[in-house]
C-alpha cells in the first residue's frame, strides 16, 4: 500500500541552516508543519524561523540520532554534507532526497560521468589528479579551459581559467593540488537553469527556466522568461526530468545549463532548492520551497505554472544596506536573510520584481 502523506503537524528535519533552509522552514510553516534545523554553525539564519535548532557537527552521532528521533522526514538545503551523515539518518528516518543524489552532485567528475552515461551532453572534460594530467586534458578537450576542484566548489570558488599548457603548474598550485577536473571553456550564448521537482510517486513538475547572469562566479540576476526560447524551455524540462528519474530523486533539484550551438549542455546539478528559483515565490501559486516540502511529504505537487514574468536579483555583501531604497519601491519584493555581518561575496538577500506575463 502506498505510504500516506505526512500530515500537517509533522516535523521536517532540515540539514543546513542558510537562507535556503530559512525559506524551506517558512514554506513548511505555511502548510502547518514544523522545521527542525541541524547545522554546525551557531545561530543559523534558518534557525530564526524554525521550531527547533540543533547545533552539532555532521559526524556527531549522538546529536544526529537525537535529531532523527524528533523528525518525521529528513531533507537538506546544502549538498556538501558527508554522505555517511545521510546514511546514518536513513537508518531510522526517510531521507529525501537520498544519499545517491548527493554522491553524484558532490563530485564534479562523478556528476559529469553520470550525466554523459544518461545521454546528457556536458562540456568536454578530463580528470586531473596531478599537474601532468593538465597537458593531457588540454590535448583531449582543447584550450582555453577551466580547472575546477572536484569537491567543495561553489559560487565560482575552486576554479581557474587556463589559456595554455604553460599555465598548468601555476593553476595546479593555485587550486591547492587537489583532485580536479578540466573542462573545455564553453562559449555560451546564454546561461539558464531549470528548477524541477519529483514527488514520492515519481511525478515530475518543472518551473519555467530562468536566464541567469553571473558576476565573478556568483548569480547576479535570474530573468523569467528572459531570452530562453520555447525550444530551450522544453529541452531543459525534458533533461531535468531524465536526471530526476535516473537518480530516483525525491524533492526539488536545480539544473544549470549553457546554451551553446544548437543545444543545451548541463553545467551542474544541485540536489536542492536553488537560488535561480527564488522568483517562484512571487510568480507562482506554489513556489519551489513549498514544492519541495510537498514532494518530500508525499503531497501532490504544484504544476509549476507561473502567473507573471519575473526578475530576481541577489543582494550580495554590502548591497543589502540598500534596503531602505528597495523597501520604498512598491514593486519590489524584498527578502533579507538575517545574516550578520555582510561579508563581501555573501548572499544577504534578494529582491524580485514581477510584471504581467508577456
Ligand atoms: P560553476 O561553479 O561550475 O557553476 O561555475 C560558475 C560559473 O562559471 C558558471 O555559471 C559560468 O558562468 C562559468 N563557467 C563554469 N564552467 C564553465 C565552462 N566550462 N565554460 C564557460 N564558463 C564556465
What does it look like?
With 358 residues, the chain is of the alpha+beta class. The protein has three domains: 11-95, Rossmann fold (3-Layer(aba) Sandwich); 124-184, ATP-grasp fold, A domain (Dna Ligase, domain 1); 190-356, 2-Layer Sandwich (D-amino Acid Aminotransferase, Chain A, domain 1), CATH 3.30.470. It has eleven helices and 17 strands. The protein has helices spanning 19-30, 61-70, 83-90, 99-105, 108-117, 131-141, 168-174, 230-247, 280-283, 288-297, 323-327; strands at residues 11-15, 34-39, 52-55, 73-76, 125-128, 145-149, 159-162, 180-184, 190-198, 204-206, 210-215, 218-224, 251-260, 263-270, 308-316, 333-336, 347-356. Strands 9, 10, 11, 12, 13, 14, 15, 16 and 17 form a nine-stranded antiparallel beta sheet that branches. The chain has a four-stranded parallel beta sheet with strand order 3-2-1-4, sandwiched between helices. It has a four-stranded antiparallel beta sheet with strand order 5-8-6-7, sandwiched between helices. A hairpin with a 2-residue loop joins strand 11 and strand 12 (218-224). The protein is globular, with a radius of gyration of 20 Å. The termini are far apart. Adenosine monophosphate (AMP) binds at residues 123, 146, 153, 156, 183, 185-186, 191, 214, 217, 256, 267-268.
Notable traits:
358 residues, alpha+beta, Rossmann fold, Dna Ligase, domain 1, D-amino Acid Aminotransferase, Chain A, domain 1, 3 domains, 9-stranded antiparallel sheet, binds adenosine monophosphate
Amino acid at each position: 500500500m502506498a505510504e500516506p502523506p505526512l500530515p500537517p503537524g509533522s516535523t521536517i528535519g532540515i540539514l543546513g541552516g542558510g537562507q535556503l533552509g530559512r525559506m524551506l522552514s517558512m514554506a513548511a510553516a505555511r502548510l502547518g508543519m514544523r522545521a527542525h534545523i541541524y547545522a554546525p554553525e551557531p545561530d543559523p539564519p534558518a534557525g530564526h524561523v524554525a521550531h527547533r535548532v540543533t547545533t552539532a557537527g555532521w559526524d556527531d552521532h549522538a546529536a544526529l540520532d537525537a535529531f532523527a528521533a524528533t523528525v518525521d522526514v529528513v531533507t537538506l538545503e546544502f549538498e556538501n554534507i558527508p554522505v555517511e551523515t545521510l546514511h546514518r539518518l536513513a537508518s531510522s528516518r526517510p531521507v529525501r532526497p537520498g544519499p545517491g543524489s548527493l554522491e553524484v552532485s558532490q563530485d564534479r567528475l562523478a556528476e559529469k560521468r553520470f550525466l554523459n552515461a544518461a545521454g546528457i551532453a556536458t562540456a568536454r572534460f578530463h580528470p586531473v589528479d596531478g599537474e601532468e594530467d593538465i597537458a593531457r586534458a588540454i590535448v583531449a578537450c582543447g584550450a582555453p579551459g577551466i580547472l575546477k576542484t572536484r569537491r567543495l566548489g561553489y559560487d565560482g570558488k575552486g576554479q581557474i581559467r587556463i589559456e595554455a599548457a604553460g599555465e598548468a603548474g601555476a593553476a595546479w598550485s593555485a587550486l591547492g593540488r587537489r583532485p580536479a577536473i578540466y573542462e573545455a571553456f564553453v562559449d555560451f550564448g546564454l546561461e539558464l537553469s531549470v528548477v524541477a521537482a519529483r514527488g514520492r510517486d515519481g511525478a515530475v513538475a518543472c518551473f519555467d527556466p530562468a536566464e541567469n547572469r553571473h558576476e565573478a562566479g556568483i548569480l547576479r540576476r535570474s530573468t523569467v522568461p528572459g531570452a530562453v526560447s520555447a525550444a530551450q524551455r522544453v529541452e531543459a524540462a525534458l533533461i531535468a526530468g531524465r536526471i530526476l528519474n535516473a537518480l530516483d530523486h525525491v524533492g526539488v533539484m536545480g539544473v544549470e545549463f549553457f546554451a551553446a550551438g544548437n543545444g543545451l549542455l548541463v553545467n551542474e546539478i544541485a540536489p536542492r532548492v536553488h537560488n535561480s528559483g527564488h522568483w517562484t515565490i512571487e510568480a507562482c501559486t506554489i513556489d519551489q520551497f513549498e514544492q519541495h516540502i510537498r514532494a518530500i511529504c508525499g503531497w501532490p505537487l504544484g504544476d509549476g505554472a507561473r502567473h507573471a514574468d519575473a526578475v530576481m536579483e541577489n543582494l550580495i555583501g554590502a548591497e543589502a544596506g540598500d534596503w531602505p531604497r528597495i523597501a520604498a519601491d512598491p514593486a519590489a519584493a524584498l527578502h533579507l536573510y538575517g545574516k550578520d555581518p555582510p561579508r563581501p561575496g555573501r548572499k544577504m538577500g534578494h529582491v524580485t520584481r514581477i510584471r504581467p506575463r508577456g
